[in-house]
């Protein structure tokens, strides 16, 4: 019997990276320990020019989470996150 796979919902639109920024910067990983508000500030700074486009902030946020932080993120209901501001609020409220 083949292993079961879960469908992972995507909470953002996929926008192509601008030609001036062909790669996503290397992001530090947040495990859920420490100060979430401070982590969000570091995350926004690390994205640099991509932080101007709110969809990029939203798109790459999950890739910077591990352990408990990613678990909390993955518990969000599909289509429950409207935009970057909403994601920040839900993230900070649940850690």
TrEMBL record:
Domain of life: Eukaryota
Protein name according to UniProt: Uncharacterized protein
Organism the protein comes from: Colocasia esculenta
Organism lineage string: Eukaryota, Viridiplantae, Streptophyta, Embryophyta, Tracheophyta
């Amino acid at each position: 019997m083949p292993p079961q796979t879960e469908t992972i919902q995507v909470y953002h639109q996929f926008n192509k990276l601008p030609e001036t920024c062909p790669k996503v910067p290397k992001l530090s990983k947040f495990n859920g320990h420490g100060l979430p508000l401070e982590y969000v500030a570091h995350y926004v700074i690390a994205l640099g020019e991509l932080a101007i486009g709110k969809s990029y902030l939203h798109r790459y946020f999950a890739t910077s989470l591990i352990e408990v932080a990613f678990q909390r993120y993955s518990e969000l209901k599909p289509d429950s996150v409207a935009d970057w501001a909403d994601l920040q609020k839900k993230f900070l409220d649940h850690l």
